[in-house]
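## tool: complex_structure
## caller: assistant
## args:
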Amino acid sequence: MDNLSVDHLIGIEHLTSRDIEIIFQTADRFKEVINRPIKKVPSLRDTTIANVFFENSTRTKLSFELAEKRLSADVVNFSASSSSVTKGETLVDTVNNILSMKVDMVVMRHPNPGAAKFLSERVNAKIINAGDGTHEHPTQALLDSYSIREKLGSVNDKKVVIVGDILHSRVALSNIYALQKQGAEVMVCGPTTLIPKYIHELGVKVEHNLRKALEWCDVANMLRIQLERQDIQYFPSLREYKMLYGLDKKLLDSLSKEIVVMHPGPINRGVEITSDVADSKQSIILNQVENGVAIRMAVIYLLAAKIER
Amino acid sequence: MNRLKELIEEILDKQIQCGSLDITFHRDDFRRHETPLIPSVTNIDFSLENKKIVLIDDVLYTGRTIRAGLDAMLAYGRPNNVELLTFVDRRFKRHLPIQADYIGKTVDSLVSERVSVEWKEIEGEDKVILYTKENNG
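## result:
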């Protein structure tokens, strides 16, 4: 079997559909591993991985760290808030310093779009993008597609609507690429101010009415309203957003078919999605989290195979 | 695998539990291949704790697969004891001090030769083939 066509995971944009399939097949095996009594395999015991987070994260960081540890890699963690970055060190200097300590792979989250690509061109280590600003968040999109595949059998020909703040969302962009490469139809739904003007050029449908979007789709991926990325007001109030774009049980039950509900987390309960929907049997939010570890193990395993000895 | 299970049950005159183990993640040659090692399915839906285990592999050669298998097996519990059954034992080429308890056939073969075992259920016929790969690849 062949390996990935890329040496780093910068974005889904650079992956082929074959790459995605290889990652999913490998993740199937790791999903079995993490459900064993002893959830650990020794494959990466000679590999050191640095998790470099210039932006806050709970779930992604935890998920990556678990994935690395279950592959027996050595792990070092770095977060910007407690580092020399605040003293004015540049990104390349920071990472080169880390690499001087013999690190093979860097998992990085950074507020600037393109940071992961920039790094991959300048340092000698495998780079995994754990989110670069509003650009891409490839492992999230992979685990989202993997969860759809697990729930519905395949992603091909499925209709997926991504609801919410598309403008600031790296999850949305990565998901659009991932879903389209696997043959799904994608629609985005949200207030005009949060939909990028030229998004239709990516081949996605645009809908501003949530009910119409939900009637069309098989899967609804409800994004979080990213208040931290909004320096101006994009909609009058959270209450109004909730009334027009929030998914509640009444709306979900009134649809003509059972759709699958997803959310990349963290949830603003009662804003984009109500508690009874988040906890309903149509929601696969917690499956997404479990699959996240398996997907990240697969990506790390496949990229680690490319490290030169 | 089912045929093997039935055969062993017939010999022992009791029911046994049977599962398949993939050892890819426990191999000692990660990153020594051109292509990555893609795993196949592990299916063990019972605990190995305090059980008597017979580990089965078609061909015993360097012993490295069995080494990895012993390691992989421990993720499912601590067995009471483990024995090894192999259909074909290619002796004299062991890299590790591992010997089988039950052997179908012992063969003396060259390093350049390959041994493969085919199954009625999979390939259509029960066969053990000793062959030489062209250009010694």
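## assistant note: Chain A touches chain B at residues 1-3, 22, 25-26, 29, 32-33, 36-44, 46, 71, 301-302, 304-305, 307, 309 (CB under 8 Å). Residues 12-137+289-304 of chain A form a domain with the Rossmann fold fold (CATH 3.40.50.1370). Handing back to user.
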